[in-house]
Every structure is written in C-alpha cells, then in structure tokens.
Amino acid sequence: MKRKSNDDKTMDDLMRATPAAIRVVLQHGMLCVGCPIASFHTISEAAREHDLDKDQLRRDLQAAIKSSNVD
C-alpha cells in the first residue's frame, strides 16, 4: 500500500507509519521522536515551530516515504 504525507497527519502518526521518516526528522534537527507534542503537531505546525522550510521538510519526508513504499 502506498503511503503519502498530508497536512492532516501528525508527526507521531507519520513516524509510526513510516519509520524512515525518523531519520529525516532528526536530520532537520527536530526532536519529535518521543516528544509529547508530536501526537498533536501536523507537519506544517512542526516546521513552523522549528523555524524550518515547510516545503523542503515535506519534500524530504515524501522522499523517505517513497523509498520505503512496498507494493
């Protein structure tokens, strides 16, 4: 099944569904892994809170998701 990130998905949901996304999160200097707010923050909200380029974060997460998709 193909997975895709969307703005409704929380960081926690994303990392649980696609463990490869954890590496991207850490590479961007985000400490979402284990953070209690990760279950509430969407990708856009997390990017804003961490002062990151939302579009770049989304592209990097999408690449991680794509690389882990198994059809």
TrEMBL record:
Superkingdom of the organism of origin: Bacteria
Location of the DUF1858 domain = 8-57
Name of the protein in its database record: DUF1858 domain-containing protein
Organism field: Mesorhizobium montanum
